[in-house]
Amino acid sequence: MSSFSRIGGYSLIEMLVVISVLAILATAAMPLVELTAKRNKERELKLALSEIRQAIDAYKSAYDKGLIDRSATVSGYPPNLNVLVSGARSNQAADGQLAFLLRRMPRDPFARPGIAAEQTWGLRSYASPPERPQPGADVYDVHSTSTEVGMNGVPYSQW
Question: What is the dihedral of CA 131, 137, 141, 144, to 10 degrees?
């Protein structure tokens, strides 16, 4: 009988193999994490654009029906994005009550942090052509100011 007993455990080579396999798996998973993050931002962008566009359309509809003050713009679209949150003067109430169309202005998820939500969006006025959106006296539409391209191949600024 030997006086030496074998102590159980992992050898250095076994540990290196396990660490190498884990590193390869982590490297393979990183693109998936980035893809998921981008997909979530795209979903946020779609929802934010939809929410703002619905509020712009509701403002125009209320303007056309005479429910809000008609002196703001000639086109009937809001003069700026802030009006959707801060409220438009209602013609229905004698006390100058405001009609609110958004609770808060959503941010462009692809915009730099630290910028006010209203400033993260590119604006298109009613007088602006669709192929070259430009700000103007009113807000007819909004778009992302990001220069990135979506997973569908369309730049975010054209969504």
Answer: 80
How far is CA 106 from each of CA 4, 28, 95, 117, rounded to the nearest angstrom? 71, 34, 29, 6
- CA 34 to chain centroid, in Å, comes to 17
Residue 144 near residue 122, CB atoms below 8 Å: yes
Separation CA 147–CA 86 (nearest Å): 29
Q: Is the dihedral of CA 89, 94, 96, 102 positive or negative?
A: negative
pLDDT tens digits, residue range 105-154? 999 999 999 999 999 999 999 999 988 889 999 999 999 999 999 999 99
Q: Model pTM? A: 0.77
**SS3 at position 68:** strand
H helix intervals, 6-152: 12-64, 82-86
Distance (Å) of CA 20 to CA 15, 16, 24, 94: 9, 6, 6, 74
